[in-house]
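Throughout our pipeline, every protein is held as a single compact record rather than as scattered files. The record that follows is passed on verbatim for readers who wish to inspect the format.
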Amino acid sequence: QVQLVESGGGLVQAGGSLRLSCAASGRTFSSYAMGWFRQAPGKEREFVACVSWSGGIYYADSVKGRFTISRDNAKNTVYLQMNSLKPEDTAIYYCAGGRTGGCSMTYDYWGQGTQVTVSS
């Protein structure tokens, strides 16, 4: 069983930056696709970014040019660098892992989430 633990959330002013981290347990991290999702109050969970096992990267249109996803397989960690934050980025951010390795909307493992709040 893989466990995912997010960290790095917090309160930031609009225009500021945060870096989220997601540490994964297990020895097969490098073969997983890793994604970030978010859920704002009263809204459905939405895709933010994904990095496949081979390094392919995808972003939601709403975060392109502002967010950067990366992974460090030696540390079993995936990151989400968030710049130029906007109040509409406020949400709980979740890390997810997919055993298939390719970026998709189906993930097998989820973290507990970390709160990101952007003030105007």
Observations:
- The chain has a mean pLDDT of 96.
